[in-house]
Design a protein that fits this description.
Helix content: 25-40%
Radius of gyration: 19 Å
Strand content: 5-15%
Shape: globular
Number of helices: 9
Largest sheet: 4 strands, parallel
Order of helices and strands: HHHEHEHHEHHEEHE
Length: about 170
């Protein structure tokens, strides 16, 4: 994450990234946790994470096990409230409602989505849900919902989920 953050940060921020006490301690804890003498097996949820660990540690590939995240898609098909939420957004039948959901907008690429939204036009509406920083000078077709307990209605109202993370372990 710190490498990717440096890659996408302005030149003047790059030097400071990872130098604070929090990140130094996290790096120390990771180094300790990824010591093959102390940890026999690691479970990861993506090939990217597995490659990242293999490139930075002395773990053998057979000691890293991939278990993908699962989702019950039928749960969102049963969700009511699509039309009511789209009406609240003033979204017509011809509008495309996009959903960005998660926490940590910088890491998850929210600025890229908003930049793209500025280019593609006003018949797109973007729902932003989760614990994310508000973006300054945001277009009027971006709606910040904050953290939500039951996101099902957001998925039901959306036509497309957008998720272009810089780094997503």
């Amino acid at each position: 994450w710190l490498d990717k953050r440096r890659e996408y940060s302005p030149w003047w921020k790059k030097f400071f990234i990872g130098r604070g006490a929090f990140h130094k301690e996290m790096l120390r804890l990771e180094k300790d946790a990824f010591d093959p003498k102390k940890t026999r097996r690691i479970i990861v949820n993506s090939e990217m994470v597995k490659r990242d660990i293999l490139s930075r540690t002395h773990f053998r590939p057979e000691s890293i096990h991939l278990v993908r995240n699962g989702i019950d898609v039928s749960r969102f098909k049963k969700c009511k409230g699509r039309e009511a939420l789209r009406s609240q957004l003033e979204a017509s039948e011809n509008d495309c409602v996009l959903l960005f959901i998660g926490s940590g907008g910088e890491r998850k690429g929210l600025s890229f989505v908003i930049d793209a939204l500025r280019m593609i036009g006003s018949n797109y509406k973007l729902i932003v849900a989760g614990k994310v920083e508000r973006v300054k000078r945001c277009p009027p077709n971006v709606y910040f919902f904050g953290p939500v307990i039951e996101p099902g209605v957001l998925y039901a109202a959306a036509d497309l989920m957008v998720f272009p993370p810089i780094y997503e372990p």
